[in-house]
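Hi team,

As requested, here is the filled-out complex form for the 2-phosphoglycolic acid run. I kept the field names the same as last time so the parser does not choke. Let me know if anything looks off before we queue the next batch.

— J.
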Amino acid sequence: MRRTLAAGNWKMNGTPEMLAELATLTGGASDTAPQIIICPPAPLLTRAAEATANSPVDIGGQDCHANAKGAHTGDVAASMLKDAGASAVIVGHSERRADHHETNAQVRAKAEAAYAAGLTAIICIGESEEERLGPDCLDIIAAQLDGSAPDSATAENTVIAYEPIWAIGTGRVPTMEQIVETHDMIREKLINRFADQGENMRVLYGGSVKPTNAAEIFQAENVDGALVGGASLKAADFQPIIDALAAS
Ligand code: PGA
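And here is what came back:
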């Protein structure tokens, strides 16, 4: 049984005042409850870790550099995220692939840096709208998975997040048929490449997950949770998503 996961990506949002809400999130206390990870902007990590010290909420970063240290102004090393209290880091989010031209090879190197620092890498993949409408959509997603996931990925150190770019922040979500087909394909690829580890690796859906659509999305066998952007900013929106996961 794969433990379900509700991960919140705050992106470049969040104030110190919002951190108090994190400690009110419930779920995640036992191995049978969904795990909860919130990824605030890097300057808030330490305070987020302090605010959640006595709660079931884990903390994650939104990106890390592929190198352990060095002359990379503005970047953050995975070990620094770990020191700040993170246990996970998102790598290869489509906004970073677009804004910073990150390639699959760079994403893979970042995931390896996360492993070296003892962090779980949440590796994001997903197609553009044009790709979704074309004939090769699943092949494109499979190639991203192949290129972005390191050979040393395990069920412990890696979570895959399937996020169609056109669904992020738009209120649009794929049909259930598309979600099921894509997640089944990802599971098959993971098993082919990583055997039991691939069977046990968590695969999240991301892109406009809301309290109103979460329960339906979580019905899919190979959806093990969600990576949530906008709806993770308020406990009033995120808690019902966690609850839907717990009930799935
Ligand atoms: P959204 O973002 O939930 O606001 O669509 C998801 C994401 O980018 O991870």
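Two things worth flagging: The pocket of 2-phosphoglycolic acid is lined by residues 9, 163, 168-169, 206-209, 227-231 (CB under 6 Å). The first helix runs from residue 19 to 22.

Thanks,
J.
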